[in-house]
Automatic annotation (TrEMBL), chain A:
CDD domains in the cross-refs: INTS11-like_MBL-fold
The name this protein goes by in its record: Integrator complex subunit 11
Residue ranges occupied by any Beta-Casp domain in the UniProt entry: 245-363
MF term (GO), any: hydrolase activity
Metallo-beta-lactamase domain residues: 16-233
Record localization: Cytoplasm; Nucleus
Biological-process GO terms, alphabetical: snRNA processing
Chief location category: cytoplasm
Cofactor list: Zn(2+)
GO annotations of cellular component type: cytoplasm; nucleus
Gene3D superfamilies attached to this UniProt entry: 3.40.50.10890, Ribonuclease Z/Hydroxyacylglutathione hydrolase-like
From TrEMBL, chain B:
Region (Disordered): 549-573
Domain Beta-Casp, first and last residues per copy: 305-433
Main subcellular location of this protein, as a coarse class: cytoplasm
InterPro entries reported for this sequence: Beta_Casp (IPR022712), Integrator_9su (IPR027074), IntS9-like_C (IPR048660), Metallo-B-lactamas (IPR001279), RibonucZ/Hydroxyglut_hydro (IPR036866)
GO cellular component: a single term: integrator complex
Protein location: Cytoplasm; Nucleus
Protein name per UniProt: Integrator complex subunit 9
Family annotation (Gene3D superfamilies): 3.40.50.10890, Ribonuclease Z/Hydroxyacylglutathione hydrolase-like
SUPFAM superfamilies assigned: Metallo-hydrolase/oxidoreductase (SSF56281)
Organism: Struthidea cinerea
Listed GO biological process terms: negative regulation of transmembrane receptor protein serine/threonine kinase signaling pathway; regulation of cellular response to growth factor stimulus; RNA polymerase II transcription initiation surveillance; snRNA 3'-end processing
Any matching Pfam family: Beta-Casp
Entry's family note: Belongs to the metallo-beta-lactamase superfamily. RNA-metabolizing metallo-beta-lactamase-like family. INTS9 subfamily.
Keyword field: Cytoplasm, Nucleus
């Protein structure tokens, strides 16, 4: 029985270093190639030695697909392709292809230049890696090879994020990457058609959360920012350069304009301006409203938001600062956090999910005394707020996507085990499909039951569909044909055509049975009685009395002769071919019972 | 498989394909050359135009002098300009299931089709095609609606009257079908029926047909289309280019193995080399400006203008034109310039790479930033304040019959310092200029048409090797003005089938196979038998289900167990229900082995007689004889069913079932 095998190398019952191996109909595909923000050792990258111990990765993998530019989905890519060694195709959307190398370079700089790590990938490796990338359009069917095809669907989440369908013959898998089922201020909602995959691999970051309306969260956010600024406090919003940052900028920009506020808003690092450029140039990937109005007003040109300089952090008075990275695990956001943490007037707003091990995760779980590098203890007096703005589908959204795609099986990744367990039960109950949640390194095998596509000759098909008007549901019509299998081609043709094509002659098998009937009448009278008898019983058949004295029932021939010795006995010769076997056999047994008393 | 040809214009096609059970319209181009018969619509009162004399018949009758005006020996209709629609009577257009659009120039008749024919289907087009198509329509509607014309002439259209008119009015075809321009609500309604598609996206139509747009290299989002079932493939090539300009290159490989290739939208100027024309354009422009004259470039608001601006961007500094203002005047100028920058995925590789940096793909962003290029919605308002001469103005419409261009023709036409440069190939420039004669201004004709020329076509056809080529009749003969140029026509084997307006073609191909799916449980039950080396066969008896044009074979249901009732059965209950066919047989029966088999199964009195064609095997006691011949076996016996069945099964052992 054909099967699909799935092994997460990362993101199995975990968030971070997404990397999932899928084997489908003899093809091996790697979905995402991410890094883990919670680790600084070997564990930050997936364990690629799992794929093959001594062969080349290129020989084993047919392709790699990257769902979006977040580092937990693409951060290990240069390591994988240039240091471990992979030369096959890597697929991603255009915006991902544009933005991914910038984030990788940023990541490399922090790791190598700031932390001083060696044996890390270089700038050149990032460039070489990106040369292997093939950009795909939404909904384009990309033929990876003759059998394997992939197709991208819009996923919301961040600019250029996509879900991917992987298909070989009738078997298919959909991988969601990260997605968002509700449109936000800058992106649209994820969408997929009813493609009925054998397996849907879905993220489950917010497996147990059902979020309140976006409007409420936005109002809350603005209120908190406003209050802090009013009392002279500073607001730190750790974000990733691309994604949530733009949404929150749009939000604050319009609020500042409406309320006529004067407190400065800054955006850290030079990435911002560049980032906004990407949003302008890839505006077709944003939501309907922004796309419609961009000619009059480009939403990504901000009036109130200025570039941040490190020195500004010590300025007196209120301000709002967006700083990267989003989980407070390194870089500028962490620096500013250390400066402002001691003042209770200040506030840090965490607008997204934080991976275990990061400072962000620690303060969100209530820790107020943090051990920093060099055994220093940092006391957090500033207010810590969490607002879920990260654009992941919540439980409702995940269920909605399953309803849209109608998969035969579901597999959860990119979430925490406990929450997954809950969602798994819910999915199984509501959709009656199997749901899996393998841990890293654990293989899930799903049996598929693919149909076999065959070429049927139009002659045969027309013959079958022409026989009756509409097939009666209760009495399904049988179709007879011969399946010719040659090399890898399967053709269903009529038996006659099969014989002809193979250059074979038909062998006719005919039966003639002698049936003795007691009837003293003249031969032709006997024949007439037989005819009437058959006519009365075989209402659905064509029964004919021919001028030469014989009877036909369909193509079965019945002739009567007198018995040579006994004039009171007539001999009926019933003759039929093998193709009429059932009817012929039935007729002889019917006639053997004799004729009914004459009327 | 039919093709209904609704337009005779080779670059503004409109064909309807009946393919399997679907009705597919390929493009709906609007022939706007009809507007050349009309007087221009001036934005401001033009004393010259309003003083043109009415046309008088030879016999002196003046009944047409309100409708027809004469200018320098040409006669023009003084009325709202009208367009020549595709044929609407050839078939019932409400039966059209889908419309496939190949590029924004080929969708201008869409509102007429979707809003007036009872059309209820879907239109498919790429996003740039829709956005830019919308801009073209907006500009068209705007430039006609802003100059309301009281008069709508119709007397001249009367067949008896038209006969009396001078050429070209006399020869204008289907004048009764000419229509006024649509309105914005109609445009919006038509565009709302469009579904966006991407290159290489497979779109299923009713499960029977799959359509796929492919990059055609001609304009932003321009596409060729593949229309195919599992066994037939029609390629629709419309407006393709192999030159490297701004759009994504043409996808040729996917056109291979077509049964039929419909070829439309070739270059309208097969003798002009686009690169050379661009060079001439630049030098004429520079010369005029240096001499203190103005340059007028009648153009569409999107397309070639992007390439021209890019050339000028590279050219102006070296040509010393850095201080000359460039104006782009169109109600959609701003939108067009903005939209061109956001379709990174539809651009050629070089431009895509720029977006990755991220920089705007077109340099006109920089021209705007440095104030070298300015754009205005019309000549009214800001433009009149900023206007400085000498300058270069890009504006529409290329027919010179409406839009801001009319104003500049009137304004600059009297001075020989000025130049009008024609770059759009859709209209004859002499005809376009006719109502402005006599004209002192210089006229330069630099048509830039990047679409395929005949050399490229023949190379393309050699490469993709379609079984049949279908094209407009114009492509199967040399151009009428250059009848000796036999190289300016399509040359292929077998010769291309040609069509003309209002013709119905029967497309030459025959389907022989169809796809069917065998359900897994049925597949498991099949018993393949190797009949020849490498060829196996299995007989299939199954239930055929057909839904949404998809066929599936399933295991036949198990016959229901007869209820064990004690009720006496009626004879007719046993009648075999349906004619369940037995398979055909093949093979032959070697007599010796057959006899051995019979003996093994307990027949001890077997006797064999030779006959002319084979043998007769006699079972004496059972009074049964079996005739064995090369291709037939005949069992003749008494009515002893168990015996007959036994013999039957022994015979079948030697034969193969089909």
């Amino acid at each position: 029985m054909p099967e699909i095998k799935v092994t997460p190398l990362g993101a199995g019952q975990d968030v971070g270093r997404s990397c999932i191996l899928v084997s489908i109909a003899g093809k091996n595909v790697m979905l995402d190639c991410g890094m883990h923000m919670g680790y600084n050792d070997d564990r930050r990258f997936p364990d690629f030695s799992y794929i093959t111990q001594n062969g080349r990765l290129t020989d084993f993998l047919d392709c790699v697909i990257i769902s979006h530019f977040h580092l937990d989905h693409c951060g290990a890519l240069p390591y994988f392709s240039e240091m471990v060694g992979y030369d096959g195709p890597i697929y991603m959307t255009h915006p991902t292809k544009a933005i991914c190398p910038i984030l990788l370079e940023d990541y490399r700089k922090i790791t190598v230049d700031k932390k001083g790590e060696t044996n890390f990938f270089t700038s050149q490796m990032i460039k070489d890696c990106m040369k292997k990338v093939v950009a795909v359009h939404l909904h384009q069917t990309v033929q990876v090879d003759e059998e394997l095809e992939i197709k991208a669907y819009y996923a919301g989440h961040v600019l250029g994020a996509a879900m991917f369908q992987i298909k070989v013959g009738c078997e298919s898998v959909v991988y969601t990457g990260d997605y968002n089922m509700t449109p936000d201020r800058h992106l649209g909602a994820a969408w997929i058609d009813k493609c009925r995959p054998d397996l849907l691999i879905s993220e489950s970051t917010y497996a147990t959360t059902i979020r309140d309306s976006k409007r409420c969260r936005e109002r809350d956010f603005l209120k908190k920012v406003h209050e802090t600024v009013e009392r002279g406090g500073k607001v730190l919003i750790p974000v990733f350069a691309l994604g949530r940052a733009q949404e929150l900028c749009i939000l604050l920009e319009t609020f500042w304009e409406r309320m006529n506020l004067k407190a400065p808003i800054y955006f850290s690092t030079g990435l911002t301006e560049k980032a906004n450029h990407y949003y302008k140039l890839f505006i077709t990937w944003t939501n309907q409203k922004i796309r419609k109005t961009f000619v009059q007003r480009n939403m990504f040109e901000f009036k109130h938001i200025k570039a941040f300089d490190r020195a500004f952090a010590d300025n007196p008075g209120p301000m709002v600062v967006f700083a990267t990275p989003g989980m407070l695990h390194a870089g500028q956001s962490l620096q500013i956090f250390r400066k402002w943490a001691g003042n209770e007037k200040n506030m840090v707003i965490m607008p997204g999910y934080c991976v275990q091990g990061t400072v962000g995760h620690k303060i969100l779980s209530g820790q107020r005394k943090l051990e920093m590098e060099g055994r220093q203890i940092l006391e957090v007096k500033m207010q810590v707020e969490y607002m879920s703005f990260s654009a992941h589908a919540d439980a409702k959204g995940i269920m909605q996507l399953i309803r849209q795609a109608e998969p035969r099986n579901v597999l959860l990744v990119h979430g925490e085990a406990k929450k997954m367990e809950f969602l798994k039960q819910k999915i199984e109950q509501e959709f009656h499909v199997s749901c899996y949640m393998p841990a890293n390194g654990e293989t899930t095998t799903i049996l598929t039951n693919p149909c076999i596509p065959v070429d049927i000759s139009l002659g045969l098909l027309k013959r079958e569909t022409a026989i009756g008007p509409l097939p009666d549901a209760k009495k399904p019509k049988l179709m007879h044909g011969t399946l010719l299998m040659k090399d890898n081609s399967f053709r269903l043709v009529s038996p006659e055509q099969a014989l002809k094509e193979l250059g074979l002659a038909e062998h006719q098998l005919r039966f003639t049975c002698r049936v003795h009937i007691q009837d003293p009448r003249k031969e032709h009278e006997t024949v007439l009685r037989v005819y009437n008898h058959l006519k009365g019983i075989l209402k659905d058949y064509s029964v004919q009395h021919l001028p030469d004295g014989s009877i036909t029932v369909e193509s079965i021939l019945i002739q009567a002769t007198a018995h040579s010795e006994d004039q009171g006995t007539k001999v009926l010769l019933v003759s039929w071919t093998y193709q009429d076997e059932e009817l012929g056999s039935y007729l002889t047994s019917l006639l053997k019972k004799g004729l009914p008393q004459s009327t | 498989f039919f093709q209904y040809c609704l337009s005779g214009h080779p670059t503004l096609p409109c064909n309807v394909l009946k393919f399997k059970s679907t009705t597919i319209m390929l493009d709906c181009g609007l022939d706007m050359t009809s507007t050349l018969n009309f007087l221009p619509l001036p934005l401001v009162q033009s004393p010259r135009l309003s003083k043109l004399p009415g046309w008088v018949l030879k016999d002196g009758s003046t009944f047409l002098d309100k409708e027809l005006k004469e200018c320098s020996g040409h006669v023009f209709v003084d009325s709202v300009p009208e367009f020549c629609l595709p044929e609407t009577e050839l078939l019932d257009l409400s039966t059209v299931d889908v419309i496939l659009i190949s590029n924004y120039h080929c969708m201008m008749a869409l509102p007429y089709i979707t809003e007036y024919t009872g059309f209820t289907g879907t239109v498919y087009a790429t996003e740039p095609t829709v956005q830019i198509g919308r801009l073209l329509m907006e500009e068209l509607v705007n430039s006609i609606e802003r100059v309301p014309k009281a008069q709508s002439a119709s007397t001249w259209k009367n067949k008896e009257v038209q006969r009396l008119l001078p050429a070209p009015l006399k020869d204008a075809v289907e004048v009764s079908m000419w229509r006024k321009c649509y309105t914005m609500p109609e445009v919006n309604a038509a565009l709302s029926k469009i579904q966006l598609v991407g290159y290489s996206q497979k779109i299923e139509l009713f499960g029977a047909v799959q359509v796929t747009p492919l990059s055609s290299g001609y304009a932003l989002g321009s596409s060729n289309w593949i229309i195919q079932s599992h066994y037939e493939k029609v390629s629709y090539v419309s407006g393709s280019s192999l030159l490297t300009t701004h759009p994504q290159p043409m996808d040729q490989a996917s056109l291979k193995n077509s049964d039929v290739l419909i070829l439309t939208g070739l270059t309208q100027i097969p003798t002009a080399n686009p690169d050379g024309m661009v060079g001439e354009f630049c030098s004429n422009l520079a010369m005029t400006v240096r001499n203190g004259g103005n340059v007028l470039v009648p153009c569409y608001p999107s397309g070639v203008i992007y390439d021209l601006l890019e050339c000028l961007y590279q050219y102006i500094d070296s040509a010393g034109l850095s201080n000359v203002p460039f104006y782009f005047i169109s109600p959609v100028a701003n939108s067009s310039l903005e939209f061109s920058q956001i379709f990174a995925e539809w651009l050629c590789h070089n431009k895509q790479t720029k977006v990755y940096l991220p920089e705007p793909p077109f340099p006109h962003a920089e021209l705007i930033q440095t104030n070298k290029l300015k754009h205005y919605p019309s000549i009214h308002g800001d433009f009149s304040n900023d206007f400085k001469q000498p300058c270069v103005v890009f504006t529409g419409h290329p027919s010179l019959r409406f839009g801001d261009v009319v104003h500049f023709m009137e304004l600059w036409g009297k001075s020989s310092l000025n130049t009008v440069i024609f770059t759009e190939p859709d209209f004859s420039y002499l005809d376009a200029l006719a109502p402005y004669q006599p004209l002192a201004m210089k006229c330069v004709y630099c048509p830039i048409d990047t679409r395929l020329n005949f050399i490229q076509v023949s190379k393309l056809l050699k490469e993709v090797q379609p079984l049949h080529v279908v094209c407009p009749e114009q492509y199967t003969q040399p151009p009428p003005t250059q009848s000796h140029r036999t190289d300016l026509m399509i040359d292929c084997q077998p010769p291309a089938m040609s069509y003309r307006r209002a013709e119905v073609l029967t497309l030459p191909y025959k389907r022989r196979y169809e796809k069917i799916e065998i359900m897994p449980d049925l597949a498991d039950s099949l018993v393949p038998l190797e009949i020849k080396p490498g060829i196996s066969l299995a007989t299939v008896s199954a239930v055929l289900h057909t839904k949404d044009n998809k066929h599936v074979l399933q295991l036949p249901p198990k016959p229901p167990q007869p209820p064990a009732s004690k009720k006496r059965k009626r004879v007719s209950d046993d009648v075999p229900e349906c004619k369940s066919l037995k398979p055909l047989l093949s093979g032959s029966i070697p007599v010796d082995q057959f006899v051995q088999t019979l003996e093994k199964h307990g027949f001890s009195d077997v006797k064999v007689e030779d006959t002319a064609k084979g043998h007769i095997v006699l079972l004496q006691e059972a009074e049964t004889l079996i005739q064995l011949e090369e291709d037939s076996t005949h069992i003749i016996c008494d009515n002893d069913e168990p015996l007959r069945v036994k013999l039957r099964d022994l015979v079948l052992k030697f034969l193969q079932k089909f």
